Amino acid sequence: MKVLVRDETVPSRRAAPRHVRPQAAAGVALTLPVAVFFVVFWLVPFVAAIYLSFTDYEMAGTPNWIGLANYERMFADPGFLNSAWITVVYTVCTVVPTIVLALLVAVPLAKPGRLNRWLRALVMIPAVMPLAATSMVWVIIYSDRGLANTLLGLAGIEPQAWLTSSDLAIWALVVMVVWKSLGLFVIILTAGLQALPGEVYEAAAIDGSGAVTTFTRITLPLLRRTLLFVLVISVAGSMQAFVPAFLLTGGGPADATQVLPYYIWANAFPYEHMGYAAAMGMVLLAAMVIISALQFAFLKGGDE
After folding, report:
1. pTM recorded for the entire structure
2. CATH of 77-299, one of 1.10.3720.10, 3.40.50.800, 3.40.1160.10, 3.30.830.10
3. Residue 5: is its pLDDT beyond 60?
4. Cα torsion for 205, 207, 208, 212, to the nearest 10°?
């Protein structure tokens, strides 16, 4: 009869090494607060918002299930359609100038030098200012005797009602947001430019490549992933913009600056149409996800 003898030198598969257990416990302890925060402050509200988007909940009583009625109402609502269009205009007119200007400023600032280090610090000042404080500063700039009208007066142009004109208010917000966002994107693009391999530019110089050709054929393709990151966060930030419209214009005049986040807030709290606001929030989230996916599809491809 054959007797099986267990080899004591081979550790059991069920028993983990002793030093692994404290490490696992420490890992759980360190990640538990983050997991709790994620569940309580993100996952639970997100699931609740999805549920409320199918109800007629109005802040009082219990939600009543109405199915897709909120979504059907949304696409027949002139206020929603107007806000969606304003959001598109606002996003395009803030993202494109900000990225173009940031790239133009980042190219010279990426070069080494003490002066450039100081300039990079200066361009970050608007970005680190609180958005509420920045909005209040620009309210003063756009006032009747503010800096904007003072400069127009020096050029012989009559003062403008920047924040109370339905034709000018949206552009006043755009200028403020571009000024506010420029510094952050300059720093990001500067870091991307400084990380590019120098030998590629040396080879291009030996081949007689001009500045424009080098920028379009070498710099931009190598900077693709950085540009993708800047584009994604700038589009997402513009589509979620609420504070500038809330503090500078209150969505007016005549709903000219009523971007979609402001319209969602107005329906959720002053009007107490929480279910309808949740449905619009889901549509905004879906639009942001789709646009981000398209950006990754078009810009991420290709080897650097």
Report:
1. 0.85
2. 1.10.3720.10
3. no
4. -70
